[in-house]
Task: inverse folding
């Protein structure tokens, strides 16, 4: 039985790589944020506004427990999921966990054009965004580094790079 959790900071490529990897493995893909949005009929941004971050984290934990029941699945979590409650330990027990490690410069490049959908980054100017990413990575590193595997995901810019990353991930996981 395969149950893989992809973790890492916002913009690390959890959704992009998770989707491509699951397709290659021919098993279902679940993005935890998408799952939450479908379940609640609201965007992650709306849920943050309505419930605050603490409220979002609670429902995120509950939904993580729900998706972790599925078998033969690739699950991409949101970037914050491993860093709250005992979520990281829980995922380590439930399946194989992978930390998608990406250089802060690459994260910055990806996120400066994709910050609108991410409530935590909205309204940040470039300078502020870069510092914010570096500081957040420092705080979150102790959680991310508990993953079973660490995978460099700096190169996900086109189809060819994504395909190469999928193959590397298969090798890393022995699949
Ligand atoms: N070729 C690209 N050029 C610039 N940005 C990209 C490119 N591919 C993906 N991105 C952006 O980088 C981010 C990383 O992808 P995503 O899979 O959403 O990461 P995660 O789920 O880890 O937050 C996305 O927000 C996407 O918009
Ligand atoms: O890092 C975070 O705290 C968050 C990451 C997001 O997911 P992605 O990592 O897929 O962007 C989403 O869950 C929410 O905006 C909070
Ligand atoms: Mg995502």
Result:
């Amino acid at each position: 039985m395969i149950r893989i959790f992809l973790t890492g900071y916002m913009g690390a490529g959890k959704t992009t790589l998770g989707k491509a990897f699951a397709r290659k493995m021919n098993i279902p893909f679940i993005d935890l944020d998408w799952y939450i949005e479908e379940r609640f009929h609201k965007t992650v941004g709306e849920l943050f506004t309505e419930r605050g971050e603490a409220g979002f984290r609670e429902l995120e934990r509950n939904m993580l427990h729900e998706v972790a029941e599925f078998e033969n699945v690739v699950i991409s979590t949101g970037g914050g999921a491993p860093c709250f409650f005992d979520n990281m330990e829980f995922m380590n027990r439930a399946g194989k966990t992978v930390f998608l490690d990406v250089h802060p410069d690459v994260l910055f490049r990806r996120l400066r054009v994709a910050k609108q959908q991410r409530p935590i980054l909205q309204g940040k100017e470039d300078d502020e965004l870069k510092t914010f990413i570096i500081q957040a990575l420092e705080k979150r590193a102790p959680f991310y580094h508990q993953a079973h595997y660490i995978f460099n995901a700096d190169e996900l810019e086109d189809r060819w790079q994504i395909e190469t990353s999928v193959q590397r991930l298969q090798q890393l996981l022995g699949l």
